[in-house]
């Protein structure tokens, strides 16, 4: 899993929360360009992607990730609500959306699906 958020504090808390529940976090990115580069380098199965990034809109990053040869499952996160993001959420190729306050390993599994079987 790759966590993409421009706030280092949020990334740190999210990583601890997810790893404590047994999820493997392979990296963290602070902006869209880092997210794209790290996804190509690390090949995460899931990318937890903030909507508001300093260099690129998270929706743009999600579209770029969907175009990769082996695209990860993307779960958008935001401090904004689903209602505030409006119809943009319906037009982006992602597994789902979570408000940051609702982030949990269980909710991620519900949206992104279970990890693939090893081997």
Automatic annotation (TrEMBL):
Entry-annotated residues carrying 4-aspartylphosphate: 50
Pfam families tied to this protein: Response_reg
Keyword Phosphoprotein set for record: yes
Keywords carried by this UniProt record: Phosphoprotein
PANTHER family in alphabetical order: RESPONSE REGULATORY DOMAIN-CONTAINING PROTEIN, STRESS RESPONSE REGULATOR PROTEIN 1
Protein name from the UniProt record: Response regulatory domain-containing protein
Residue ranges occupied by any Response regulatory domain in the UniProt entry: 1-115
Gene Ontology process terms (BP): phosphorelay signal transduction system
InterPro entries to which the protein is assigned, alphabetical: Bact_response_regulator, CheY-like_superfamily, NreC/VraR/RcsB-like_REC, Sig_transdc_resp-reg_receiver
Organism: Kibdelosporangium phytohabitans
SMART domains: REC
Highest taxon of the lineage: Bacteria
Keyword Transit peptide listed: no
């Amino acid at each position: 899993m790759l966590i993409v958020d421009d706030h280092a504090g949020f990334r740190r808390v999210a990583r601890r929360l997810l790893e404590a529940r047994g999820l493997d976090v392979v990296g963290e990115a602070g902006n869209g360009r880092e997210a794209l580069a790290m996804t190509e380098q690390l090949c995460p199965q899931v990318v937890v992607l903030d909507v508001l990034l300093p260099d690129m809109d998270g929706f743009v990053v999600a579209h770029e990730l969907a175009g990769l040869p082996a695209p990860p499952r993307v779960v958008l996160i935001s401090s904004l609500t689903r209602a505030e993001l409006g119809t943009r959420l319906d037009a982006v190729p992602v597994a789902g959306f979570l408000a940051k306050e609702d982030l949990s390993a269980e909710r991620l599994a519900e949206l992104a699906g279970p990890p693939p079987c090893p081997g």
